Amino acid sequence: MTRNMFVDIKNVSKNLTDFSLENLNISFEKGEIIGLVGENGAGKTTLLNLISGILKPDKGQILLSSNNIGYCFDALPEPENLTIEQLNTIFTGLLAVWDSDTYFSFVDEFKLPKGKPIGVFSKGMKMQLNVSITLSHNPTLLLLDEVTAGLDPIVRRTVLNTIKEYAISSECIVIMTTHNLEDISDICNRLILLNNGSILLDDNFEDKSSKEIELIFRKTLGYGDM
Ligand SMILES: Nc1ncnc2c1ncn2[C@@H]1O[C@H](COP(=O)(O)OP(=O)(O)OP(=O)(O)O)[C@@H](O)[C@H]1O
């Protein structure tokens, strides 16, 4: 699949009560898997919310090549009494782009039970379902907010591999926030470090270890070596 995809953020500012993101300029292109890192409160989720349209910029504009966005929040937002099968029925009715076959292929890959209420799922199962839903409407832009937080090493690896495979086969843009620098090392090819609403570092890379990324992170933020 070849698609001409971009996200273009131009002179964007957003003021929240005690936080502001000032005059942000940045672009993303197809094939990029961007790791968005920064300390707690740096503005990572705010930036994802601006890109997705959940938040509107006070100034500037955000241009997207497509509105088919897959936004995976850090918790499963669907009602807990529903089952995987019922969710399929709902999304089939709601979304013209919903692909049931893809949905059930992810559900089967993750070995998730289709008839149980999702509220009884473990954290890892919920995140695997979250990812399955996010990838089942052929999104051209994936926004992933801390999708590996609290996952055991095996589930984390499965989730990351699934995201990477989707990113490569669909040539979409992935923007992923994480506090785990191994996630960046494992699947990303671009690192963005946000601090207090500003971009401190924007680095394209191949094959960097999480240790090397941590050193860059610490150096850029002015912390000494460990
Ligand atoms: N709706 C809102 N109204 C007011 N302030 C907000 C709102 N949403 C976020 N903020 C503030 O904006 C700042 C950035 O929050 P954000 O969630 O974007 O940070 P983050 O980098 O994702 O943090 P974390 O790593 O802890 O998840 C914080 O100070 C937060 O309190």
UniProtKB/TrEMBL annotation:
GO terms of molecular function: ATP binding; ATP hydrolysis activity
Taxonomic superkingdom: Bacteria
Keyword Transport annotated: yes
Key words of the record: ATP-binding, Nucleotide-binding, Plasmid, Transport
Parts forming coiled coils: none
InterPro entries the UniProt entry points to: AAA+_ATPase, ABC_transporter-like_ATP-bd, ABC_Transporter_VariousFunc, P-loop_NTPase
Entries under SUPFAM superfamilies matching the protein: P-loop containing nucleoside triphosphate hydrolases (SSF52540)
Protein name: ABC-transporter ATP-binding protein
Native organism: Lactobacillus gasseri
